[in-house]
Design goal:
Length: 184
């Protein structure tokens, strides 16, 4: 029923950027900070899809997942890497704090993007690239926040904002700043 009401309330309304329909995205949970579109899709240089704090995630517990190093090596081999994996280390992060590149000791090539690494291990298991990494006795432990790429509207965040009484316009302004909501 709530989805049906929201659909009827927004029917015929469009988000515009510079007078044209905007390209918009959403993710399950930004984990407290949205991601810039160009960090996930380099050609998507959209100024209204930028990184920003999302203050409705403060009480979210971090997620944790562990992988034996041998399982990570098998996943990376399926994705085209060769060699014997000895270490995995975070090399760089972007402005939102998400992992952009990891070093793979013993593999060729010896680097991988955070997005490709997440895809190789399984995007449903390694929930986002907003993680920290620890290694102990042949097991990699990932502790992170969010679920998905983090670009655009955060579904969890939008739901929480609506539950606390924020208007449709305020919610859209949080996730898509600079866009105009118009009726067609």
């Amino acid at each position: 029923p709530a989805t049906r009401r929201a659909t009827h309330a927004t029917a015929g309304r469009v988000l515009l950027y510079q007078g044209r329909p905007a390209e918009v995205f959403y993710s399950a949970s930004c984990g407290g900070r949205s991601e810039r579109a160009s960090e996930v899709w380099p050609a998507a240089v959209l100024p209204y899809l930028r990184t920003a704090e999302d203050d409705v995630h403060g009480d979210d517990p971090p997620w944790t997942v562990e992988f034996p190093l041998r399982d990570v090596q098998q996943a990376l081999r399926r994705a085209g890497w060769t060699g014997e994996l000895r270490t995995v280390e975070i090399d760089t992060r972007n402005i939102s704090g998400r992992v952009t590149r990891l070093r793979l000791g013993g593999l060729r090539p010896d680097v991988i993007t955070g997005t490709a690494f997440r895809a190789a291990l399984g995007a449903g298991t390694l929930r986002s690239t907003a993680f920290d990494l620890a290694s102990r006795r042949g097991v990699l432990r990932f502790t992170g926040r969010g679920y998905g790429h983090g670009v655009g509207m955060c579904v969890v965040g939008a739901g929480r904002r609506a539950a606390r009484g924020e208007s449709l316009e305020a919610i859209l302004a949080q996730y898509f700043p600079g866009l105009d909501l118009t009726a067609t």
